[in-house]
Amino acid sequence: MQRVTVIERFSRTFRDNASLSKLLIVFTVSGGGLVAYSEAAKSYENPNAGELVEANNRKKKVVVLGTGWAGTSFLKNLKDPSYDVQVISPRNYFAFTPLLPSVTCGTVESRSVVEPIRNIIRKKHVDACYWEAECVKIDPENKKVYCRSNLDTDGKGKEEFAVDYDYLVISVGARVNTFNIPGVEENTFFLKEVEDAQKIRRTVIDCFEKASLPTLSDEERKRLLHFVIVGGGPTGVEFAAQLHDFVNEDIVRIYPKVKDLVKITLLEATDHILNMFDKRITAFAEEKFQRDGIDVKTGSMVVKVGDKEISTKDVKRGDITSMPYGMAVWSTGIGTRPVIMEFMKHIGQGNRRVLATDEWLRVEGQDNVYALGDCATINQRKVMEDIAAIFHKADKDNSGTLTVKEFQEVLKDICERYPQVELYLKSKKMSNLADLLKESKGDGVKESVEVNIEEFKSALSQVDSEMKNLPATAQVASQQGVYLAKCFNRMEECEKNPEGPLRFRGEGRHRFHPFRYRHLGQFAPLGGEQTAAQLPGDWVSIGHSTQWLWYSVYASKQVSWRTRALVVSDWVRRYIFGRDSSQI
Q: Contact, 163 vs 65, CB < 8 A?
């Protein structure tokens, strides 16, 4: 009895204080080793909890829409107790979406990649609560969001209610983009949510069970066991690889009579799969899929999806052909959610594809509304739009000309405010502005040499060509959430002491440093315990060793110790017992 009591106390302590210590998980599987390391931030204790409760009326209300990568990262890193946080989302959990392809084939269980959002906010030292509802309208003039409950209450239907806010954080993500192709919505499976992965898993097993029935013809069996993946991006490629491994490692033993009828086809409209990766990775992936028997059809654009046939158009020749299929997975891109489209029309952004924000993640024209993740994009300001203001700010003596020395004094602020300047200098292999002015003037430039505004414009005329939109990835959304939380944590301090770059069109400095994305690399699992990685510094790694790096990174990136332990145990279980093929 005493032993049980000790174990219960230890378990309760660990659950309530998950960051008491560092954890090192080391396990060995099939002759290989994996080290997953993670360190959580120290738990925060609030000695003035009673005073804060009394001061509730003074707290600024922050409404967070969405519990995806951006919203959850914001919540996990928000530490200032002066906010009253209200989380609203139709999904009461956070999902580790990079592992969804693993869920489709039973490599990882769906419960292992989700963490209840209430578990996350209950450990925070800020006042936070969660409501399971969907935002249907945003009213920025009155600072309200209108929501519809996800639950039917007492048979009266789904209730609607309004929520006031002082600050609004929009992180609702995006929906699947069907490009209005007939039959996609009705006949294909998406792979964006946990529910999608569960449906795909059940359907894969259904196809094999139906194909095993004695009453079917061989043609019908072949159709049922033809799996088509539309989209040659990371998600489509990883799902194709996972399905191939599932068939060859597990299905062949369970369904021996139909294993030879399985066919996997990957359709991509461009010339290559994984075209956002290094060409070395693209070439390796295409060669490996060819060896594995996965039929990769590049230059094939889907034009129609029936319930049993899918029609494609050859991009170069224009020929349209049809092929029978048993299951089709659609993984081609993302589109804007209806509530965001209505909000964009309301604030004058109706002609844009996604919600536009400034470099501080504020929605353009809305001081207290922030947007991050897949639903928004940063509208980086162009240098040439502010070229005159930059010139006059640097021209401290109002002489009408600039020396290189004068401009060097504000170069740091310019590079921070306009990151394309630094990117342009790097692309041209220039160490400083003097090199840029030298190229513009075509002769030697010394610090005493002066340039007028026209020469200045000429020198910077090509800088804006380096502007690029950030990709819609979990990595970007997560970093944006962390950045915005840090801004909120230092809101009061930075109001008094701004820390950002110079205001070239005004006085003083910006309140915060602008958001800067730091690319940490990307993975592309290719099946057969082989993964391709493209890491910073143009470093490409492909093979079995990279697979162990993938394991380690994904284990350490889990949002809780619970999901970390579950994912690792799922990997171990798969190695020992294989993938689960039940239809539960």
A: no
Q: Which amino acid is at 110?
A: S
pLDDT at position 22, please? 39
Euclidean distance between CA atoms 476 and 70, whole angstroms: 8
pLDDT, residue 156, reads: 65
Residues of the chain with pLDDT below 70 are 1-58, 153-157, 432-434, 437-449, 583-584
Q: How far does the chain reach from its first CA to its final CA, in angstroms?
A: 37
- CA distances for 392 relative to 132, 383, 388, 422, 584, angstroms: 52, 14, 6, 21, 69
Q: Which domain holds residue 417?
A: 383-465
pLDDT at 245: 96
Report pLDDT for 449.
65
Tell whether 330 and 307 lie within a shared domain.
yes
Total tally of structural domains belonging to the chain: 3
Specify the pTM.
0.87
Strand (E) or helix (H) holding 483: helix 474-489
Strand 369-371, strand 167-170: pairing:
parallel
Give dist(CA 581, CA 254) in Å, integer: 9
355-357 and 369-371 as β-strands: parallel, antiparallel, unpaired? Answer: unpaired
| pLDDT score, position 35 | 38
Q: Which residue has the tokens 């993302």?
A: 334
Structure tokens at 404: 């290189």
Claim to verify: residue 422 and residue 536 sit in the same structural domain: no
> How confident is the model at residue 263, as a pLDDT?
97
Residue 168 lies in a domain: yes
374 and 416 share a domain? no
Name the amino acid, one letter, at 442. Answer: G
